[in-house]
Amino acid sequence: MAITPRTAKVTQNSSTQTINAALPDDFVAGDYVIAHVAFTSIVANLTPPAGWTQIVAPFISGIDTLAAAYGRSNPGAGPTVTTSSAVGRQTVICEAYGGVDTSTPTDGVTPTTGTNASTAPAVAQLTGTSANARLVSGIAANNSTAVFTAPSGMTLQAQTSGGGGRSGGYADEEFAAGGSTGTRTFGTNGAVAHSAYLFALRPAVDAGEPPTYRVARCNVRII
User: Under 8 Å CB-to-CB from 71, ≥6 apart: which residues?
Assistant: First the structure.
């Protein structure tokens, strides 16, 4: 079953400690939502959104260019993310998907991360992904004006604009073949610290697919 993306929603602020992020306008009940966090914070000071599952643990490049990712099935509202670090530029990008296996939404493959002090990092590949998995990559940059292009093969679903929050971008890709993904690298015009990650969402099993049965062999001896 194919995973279907909605229209990602960016919530950003130029001087705050808290983002009350909005869900995509075309969110459908039952969707699985990813919250990409691009924050001005150190890891220890970040408070994750209550009720959401951590997919990519917070990590930083430079002093405080933090990225993280959280997920939740059918949330009633967008996530609230807070830092106890000083007020700064903060961003959360929410993307919703239909067709995700909500019982095991991530694909059982450990996410990969990358950092670079002066450009977008090449994020290491995933291996062993399922056929038709949805690859997801997010990035944060240590400024408010970076312009991103999607990694090769991916689609840029959203990015910050207008110099509001912490620069962030979000891209995804239907990975029909499964297996090893190869590395993923955003394009960027910012010569600053960047943090980026890569993970995969698992597709739901189509209810129309016939079940698979295993026939057991039984040896009976009659005396």
Answer: 32, 33, 34, 35, 52, 53, 55, 105, 106
